[in-house]
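Request: How about a record?
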Amino acid sequence: MGKAVRRVRDESQKNIVRLIEGIEGRYSKWDIWQDFIVMSAIGIANVLNGPYKESREKDYRARAEKYSEKEMGAFAQMLAEVADTMEQNPDQDFLGELFMALDLGNEWKGQFFTPYSVCRAMAVITCGDGLKQKIEQQGWVSVNDPACGAGALLLAFANECRRPGRDINYQTSVLFVAQDIDFLAGMMCYIQMSLMGCPGYVVIDDSISHPITGLDPRGLIPRDGPNVWYTPMYFRDVWHWRRLWVQMDRVLFTAAPKGQAETPTPEPLGTVEEDFKVTKTGQLTLF
C-alpha cells in the first residue's frame, strides 16, 4: 500500500489510500475497494426510490454488515473525498486513476483504463465544431461509450462542453449512455457521472452480445432492468418532459402486433429537482 501512496497524485487520493490501509487486515484491498464502490453507487441510486431499491438495499446491508461502525465511517469519508475533489476539479478520472494506482486492474478483463489526457483529446475530436448547432437543431444530443470503464471518456466530453468557446450546459443538452461488462467498472462510472451531474444511465452487460437497446430511436429510454443504473440528473425536469413526449409518441403512433400486448414504457420516477443545489457556474450538483 505504501507504493500506492507514492503513485497517487493528490492529497485526496492519498487520504483514501490511508483509509483503506486502516481497514485492511481482515479483508483485502480488493474487497474493501469493491465494497466501497458498490455501497457508494447504491447510496446514490437509492436516493431516487427506483423499482430496484429494495434488492440494492439488501446488497448494501450484506456488505455493510461485515464492517464495524468505525470502518463504515471510513467509507463515508472516502466518498466525501471523492465528491469534494470532483467538485473542486471535475476535469479528471479520479476513481479510474486511483484504481490503477492501487494495482487493482485485472489483466484478464482488460481493465487498463485509458489515460484521461487521451480521453480529453478524443472528446475534443468528438465534440467537433458543430455540436452547439446540432443541439440547437435537435434539442439535445447523446454520447455513448460501450466500454466505459470508470467513465473517463464521458467525463472528458462533459468537461469539453463546459470549456469557454463551447459553453454548452451538458446537464440539459447531453444524454450520457455508458455500458461495461464489468460490474465494478460500471459502478465507478456511475458514481463519477452522478457526481458530475451527467444525465443518463449505465448498463452492466456485454456490449457485443447484448448492446444497449432503447424504446425510442435516440436511446432516451432504455429497456429497463436491474442492470440499468440511472443517474440522479436523468430525472431532472427537462429530461422528465422529454421522456413523457417519447411515451406519448409511442402511445399515439406505435401499435402492438395483433394478439400481443404492447410493452409498457418505464418511467421510473418524476423529477428530483428539489434535491439539487446550484453551483457558482450555474450547474446543478448533489452536494
